[in-house]
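Z., the sequence and structure:
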Amino acid sequence: MAGLYFEDFEEGAVYPHEAERTVTLADSIQYACMCMDTEPRYLSEAWAAKNSPHGRVQIHPLYVLSLIMGVQVTELTLGTTLGNLSMGGVSFPHPVFPGDTLRGVTTILGKRASSTKPDRGIVDFLHDGLNQRDEIVARCTRRGMMVTRAYKSVKA
């Protein structure tokens, strides 16, 4: 399914995303290694058992944020976004642990037509990641440049 066009977004609309993922220690280790982040709280169960305030290894929070951002693409922005203009308000209110199942919810905070390009507009999103207990584990705002139905692809 293609993403939504600029015209389709309405301020205040809430989109609970169907995709969910049960995260594993292997997910966290792979992400941390790709980022060259050697913080042991995301890598070592033995270290975390002795040193973490939670007594166990945590899933890397930036992996969690990436996952939450990713689950919205198929339903909202696949093929209809020209890029992300900014992100902000990033927070991680609750830690994520191996075995937690995560899902995303997106709320449309607002939108405005581009003042210089009539075939696109700017949409402000709020992305929330929730665990199986419905606790918010990640939150951020994002501003995206979205195409209108009048947009002509530059591929031609």
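Strands lie at 14-22, 81-91, 101-113, 120-130, 136-147. The first strand starts at residue 14 and ends at 22.

Let me know what you think.
H.
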